[in-house]
């Protein structure tokens, strides 16, 4: 069973905060969550001279905390135990990473505005630095999740995400679909028949699925789909399947085995995060990777 002892919600005082807090409440209604931390960091060095001159010695932290408290009171009614944390640190990412370690946060919820409204720079940094799983909620997403898409590449990270997806769908009574995107070595066409290459590739992948189902009986009955990349990236094919299958949640595993932080996120999760997809994206680490 999936249970979350500690969850962090990153707020930025934008219009998405209300949706993010309401989404957090819906998580608490569906899953056992012990405590939620609503977090905001004030970068005081970014405040203009005009602001300082106009408002003088106003206690900005207290004002921000009061603003967040109003949103929480309105959108989190009936939620679990919670606390509001407002800080004034020069580096937001490091501050939040410290909170994750200090409060043993298992899941961070992060809002995402569409690309025309935001560069997504802070979100990308948080994905790379936070030592916990992250649930990204786009501003256009909905709360009523009925089905989950779990793409796998047969790596340990994707299999961990698949097992979590199966536990989640069993726990909440949701539908689950597994997706694998495969590519053909097109440099050998027309030396070999494209039709034969597709048939052979799908035979190999189907064999890997049969072996996977033998090792993990719990997913034996879960439907899976093979999709050829066919000139598109894996991330683009996943995004297309999301829209086609009308899924409400995308779950991806993060490897986290690269010693260089900027490279540890992986190309597919990074590309999907930067796309304007309309469903929540759950990026999960295994406990072994986090440790």
UniProtKB/TrEMBL annotation:
Domain UspA: 148-272
Top-level taxonomic group: Bacteria
InterPro entries linked to this entry: Rossmann-like_a/b/a_fold, UspA
Pfam families in UniProt: Usp
Residues that span the membrane, as ranges: none
Entries under Gene3D superfamilies matching the protein: HUPs
Name recorded for this polypeptide: Universal stress protein
């Amino acid at each position: 069973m999936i249970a979350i002892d500690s969850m962090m919600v990153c707020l930025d005082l934008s219009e998405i905060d209300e949706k993010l807090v309401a989404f957090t409440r819906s998580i608490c209604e569906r899953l056992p969550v012990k405590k939620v931390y609503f977090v905001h960091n004030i970068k005081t060095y970014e405040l203009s001279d005009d602001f300082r001159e106009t408002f003088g010695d106003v206690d900005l932290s207290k004002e921000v905390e009061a603003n967040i408290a109003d949103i929480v009171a309105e959108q989190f009614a009936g939620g679990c135990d919670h606390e509001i944390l407002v800080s004034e640190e020069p580096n937001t990412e490091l501050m939040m990473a410290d909170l994750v370690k200090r409060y043993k946060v298992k899941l961070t919820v992060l809002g995402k505005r569409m690309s025309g409204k935001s560069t997504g720079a802070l979100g990308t940094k948080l994905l790379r630095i936070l030592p916990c799983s992250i649930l990204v909620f786009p501003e256009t997403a909905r709360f009523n999740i009925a089905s989950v898409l779990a793409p796998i590449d047969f790596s340990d990270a994707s299999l961990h995400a698949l097992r979590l997806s199966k536990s989640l769908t069993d726990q909440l009574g949701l539908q689950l679909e597994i997706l694998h995107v495969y590519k053909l070595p097109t440099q050998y066409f027309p030396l070999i028949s494209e039709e034969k290459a597709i048939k052979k590739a799908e035979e190999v992948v189907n064999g890997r699925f049969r072996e996977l189902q033998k090792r993990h009986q719990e997913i034996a009955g879960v439907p899976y789909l093979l999709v050829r990349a066919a000139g598109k990236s894996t991330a683009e094919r996943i995004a297309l399947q999301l829209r086609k299958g009308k899924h409400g949640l995308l779950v991806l595993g993060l490897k986290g085995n690269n010693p260089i932080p900027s490279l540890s996120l992986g190309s597919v999760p990074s590309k999907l995060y930067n796309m304007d997809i309309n469903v929540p994206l759950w990026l999960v680490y295994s406990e072994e990777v986090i440790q």
